[in-house]
Amino acid sequence: MIKLYHLPVSFNSRRIWIALLEKALPFELVEMRLDGDQFQPDYLALNPFHHIPVLVDGGLRVLESLAILDYLEAKYPSPPLLPTDPAQVATVRMVELVTINELVPPYGLLVRHLMGANIEDAAAHQARQRIGTVLAFFEQLLGEKAYFAGEQLTLAEVVAGTIVPRVPGVGVLLDEYPRLQQWSRRLAGRPSWQQSEPKAADLAASRARMAAMAWRSQP
């Protein structure tokens, strides 16, 4: 059986969880605690970089969320989460990479800022502007479609849909992006999003841990 080593509050591992649910694959969740579990010898044998997620399928181990998603799509192609039309494939890949490269870094900075890390207000302002640029791009790319590639839910939603709905939590509202608001509500209604939604206790524990780390990092 497939095993997914994950952290409930991590959008990186939630992507894989959602993909597994959307494909209706049998799998086992192995919950990690990043206060030491990731440095245990058994886990380091799976991932020497000591982060999550890791997917194990039989004798195969796959690291990095995008690589895991590509593996699942290739090994278990039904139902598909990747279109066949070249333009739609390009759109899906754009959304994935823009999310990873342009949205995650400023979002992470603002989370640390809210937790009390020593980050200048100017840097936080620039991070909000950068997130706004991504949201405007996504709003235009989505257009009048239900999903980024049309009427089919794809890996674009699996990747972007685990972080875009979170940005109001760092002070970037979605009010100016009505299409993204509707898209986010559409995703929130899917059983895979509901089943993988982090629990309040997990979120509170994560915030407490991050606040403690930010306090310790102060000069």
Description:
The structure is a single chain. This protein is an alpha+beta fold and 219 residues long. It folds into 2 domains: 79 residues, Glutaredoxin (3-Layer(aba) Sandwich), CATH 3.40.30; 103 residues, Glutathione S-transferase Yfyf (Class Pi), Chain A, domain 2. Strands 2-1-3-4 form a 4-stranded mixed sheet, with helices on one face. Strand 3 and strand 4 form a beta hairpin. Helix 1 runs parallel beside helix 3. The protein is globular, with a radius of gyration of 18 Å. The termini are far apart. The C terminus is likely disordered. It is an enzyme of class 5 (isomerase). It comes from Gloeobacter kilaueensis (strain ATCC BAA-2537 / CCAP 1431/1 / ULC 316 / JS1). GO terms for molecular function: glutathione transferase activity; maleylacetoacetate isomerase activity. Its EC number is 5.2.1.2. This is Glutathione S-transferase.
Question: What topology emerges from the helices and strands here?
Answer:
Layout lengths: L1 E5 L4 H12 L4 E5 L9 H6 L7 E4 L2 E4 L1 H11 L10 H29 L6 H22 L12 H6 L17 H11 L2 H6 L3 H17 L3
Parallel strand pairs: 1-2
Antiparallel strand pairs: 1-3, 3-4
